[in-house]
């Protein structure tokens, strides 16, 4: 699965890419005055990463609601929900990995800030089993992480600063990658800005903002003047996900648009003064007396929760249809492959699991690949649904098929009570214990789990121990013994240095 997306070109016309996996680990800060192309940059980033990673957009102006139609984002109207509903929706967003836009444009400024803070806090406090990777984009971040209190109530300021600090400082461990955009660095809380390792700096004119931007980009005072001269849509980028040295980026085109007013000059209406006055005053009293037109009712919280759940489940029937198509050849009278015995499906899944990078692909992509291979080899596979495929793929990834039948059957019985989200690393430990091998190291468990973070595996081991699946015993010499509950000693223990 690719992790590079192109956001624009440099001065020589060469593409400038962003490494999405690196971005998830290192976060991004975008700065630019009004009219510098900051929202255009965010839109380009969101459009290019749609389908690669879950996206959660905090949108105070309602500019990003246009992502809903082409990219299937769900729009949550912050003005339509209570505090408890906002928190419940945030929990469901994390659980079902649905991309959403939290539109706050119908709220007063302080209510926008409180609503966003509650939503971000609920995302942050999601259960460990829902810590999936997600980009969290916060536009106009100086509102939600102000450097000074201003006119905000003190409790509101503390709430929003806590939520934004958690997102940028501690969110990475929970899969949340903050992308904050601000008009002025001087107005953004320093402890929020300091946590970003990637920067895209657009045009700004005030000396204090130019100097802070230059400091972040590693530029001296003379070079900082470049920031004042940047054209609209041009940014200076730096960071492990972008470039190791400052690079000029001209942001590419986008598919969707915001709701900005038309820009540029337009001809004025051709009419005489009396006609214009008549346009303003005719039937004025009747219009003032007419009742205000009520806006279209927003979706209720139950409707949104249902939409989020249905969107998450939509992928499975789609790929199940492709699995059914793999048997069309046989249904239409085609002869099955004479070499396709009972072991044909496990063999295809084992081949798929053995490919480099397979565990890092989504279940839907793996299932489509499986269905295609079955069709090519004329192997019936319609009896394998998505849920069964996930478990068979985990068995193959752990090498369970290589064990003798008695041990394999014992581990399969134990695996019946293991949740799907930890099944692959659990099986890897169980298979190693059954063989009497050393425990897989954290890098190997991370590969089996489909993660590039060994630290996540340490948390996963703690999670499995709390569920009673394993027992971890730390040794004084720095080693570690992991006992798989349900397997008899000595085969039930694996050791790691």
Brief write-up:
The protein is built from 21 helices and 14 strands. Helix 4 runs parallel beside helix 13, helix 18 runs antiparallel to helix 19 and helix 19 packs across helix 20.
Description:
- Helix 18 (405-415) runs antiparallel to helix 19 (420-435).
- The chain has 21 helices and 14 strands.
- By secondary structure, the protein is α/β, with parallel strands linked by helices.
- An eleven-stranded mixed sheet has the order 2-1-11-10-9-3-8-7-4-6-5. It has a three-stranded antiparallel sheet with strand order 12-13-14.
- The radius of gyration is 27 Å and the shape is globular.
- It has helices at 20-26, 38-49, 68-71, 83-96, 109-124, 141-144, 154-170, 190-193, 207-217, 225-228, 273-281, 284-289, 301-325, 328-331, 344-354, 363-376, 386-398, 405-415, 420-435, 442-449, 454-466, and strands spanning 4-9, 15-19, 28-31, 54-59, 74-77, 100-103, 134-138, 176-182, 198-201, 234-239, 243-251, 470-474, 480-484, 493-496.
- Strand 10 (234-239) and strand 11 (243-251) form a beta hairpin.
- Residues 318-336 have low confidence and may be disordered.
- It has three domains: 4-256, P-loop containing nucleotide triphosphate hydrolases (Rossmann fold, 3-Layer(aba) Sandwich); 313-398, no CATH class; 402-497, Arc Repressor Mutant, subunit A (Orthogonal Bundle), CATH 1.10.10.
- The longest helix has 25 residues, at 301-325.
């Amino acid at each position: 699965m690719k992790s590079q997306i192109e956001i624009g070109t440099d001065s020589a016309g060469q593409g400038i890419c962003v490494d999405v996996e690196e971005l998830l680990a290192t976060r991004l800060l975008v700065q630019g005055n009004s009219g510098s192309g900051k929202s255009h940059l965010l839109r380009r980033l969101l459009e290019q990463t749609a389908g690669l990673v879950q996206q959660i957009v905090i949108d105070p102006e309602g500019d990003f609601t246009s992502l809903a139609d082409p990219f299937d984002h769900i729009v949550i109207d912050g003005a339509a929900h209570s505090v408890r509903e906002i928190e419940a929706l945030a929990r469901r967003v994390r659980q079902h990995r649905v991309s959403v836009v939290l539109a706050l444009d119908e709220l007063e400024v302080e209510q926008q800030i409180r609503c966003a803070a509650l939503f971000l806090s609920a995302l942050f406090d999601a259960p460990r089993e829902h810590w999936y990777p997600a980009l969290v984009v916060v536009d106009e971040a100086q509102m939600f992480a102000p450097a000074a209190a201003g006119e905000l109530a003190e409790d509101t300021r503390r709430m929003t600063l806590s939520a934004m600090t958690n997102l940028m400082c501690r969110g990475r461990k929970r899969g949340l990658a903050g992308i904050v955009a601000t008009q002025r660095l001087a107005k953004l809380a320093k402890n929020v800005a300091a946590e970003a390792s990637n920067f895209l700096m657009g045009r700004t004119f005030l000396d204090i903002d130019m100097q802070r931007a230059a400091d972040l980009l590693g530029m001296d005072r003379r070079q900082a003047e470049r920031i004042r001269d940047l054209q609209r849509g041009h940014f200076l980028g730096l960071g492990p996900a972008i470039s190791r040295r400052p690079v000029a980026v001209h942001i590419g085109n986008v598919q969707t648009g915001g709701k900005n007013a038309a820009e540029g000059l337009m001809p004025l209406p051709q009419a005489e003064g009396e006609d214009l006055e008549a346009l303003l005053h005719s039937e004025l009293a009747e219009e003032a007396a007419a009742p205000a037109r009520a806006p279209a009712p927003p979706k209720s919280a139950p409707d949104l929760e249902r939409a989020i759940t249905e969107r998450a489940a939509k992928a499975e029937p789609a790929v199940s249809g492709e699995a059914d198509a793999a048997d069309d050849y046989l249904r239409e009278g085609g002869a099955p492959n004479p070499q396709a015995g009972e072991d044909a499906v496990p063999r295809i899944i084992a081949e798929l699991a053995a490919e480099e990078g397979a565990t890092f692909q989504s279940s839907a992509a793996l299932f489509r690949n499986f269905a295609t291979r079955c069709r090519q080899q004329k192997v019936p596979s319609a009896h394998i649904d998505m849920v069964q495929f996930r478990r068979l793929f985990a068995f193959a990834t752990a090498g369970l098929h290589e064990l003798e039948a008695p041990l394999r059957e014992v581990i399969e019985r134990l695996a019946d009570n293991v949740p799907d989200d930890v099944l692959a690393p659990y099986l890897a430990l169980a298979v190693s214990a059954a063989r009497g091998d050393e425990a897989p190291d954290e890098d190997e468990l991370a590969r089996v789990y489909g993660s590039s973070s060994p630290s996540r595996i340490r948390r996963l081991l703690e999670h499995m121990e709390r569920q009673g699946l394993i027992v971890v015993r730390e040794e004084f010499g720095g080693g570690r013994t992991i006992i798989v509950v349900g397997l008899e000693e000595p085969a039930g223990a694996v050791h790691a240095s």
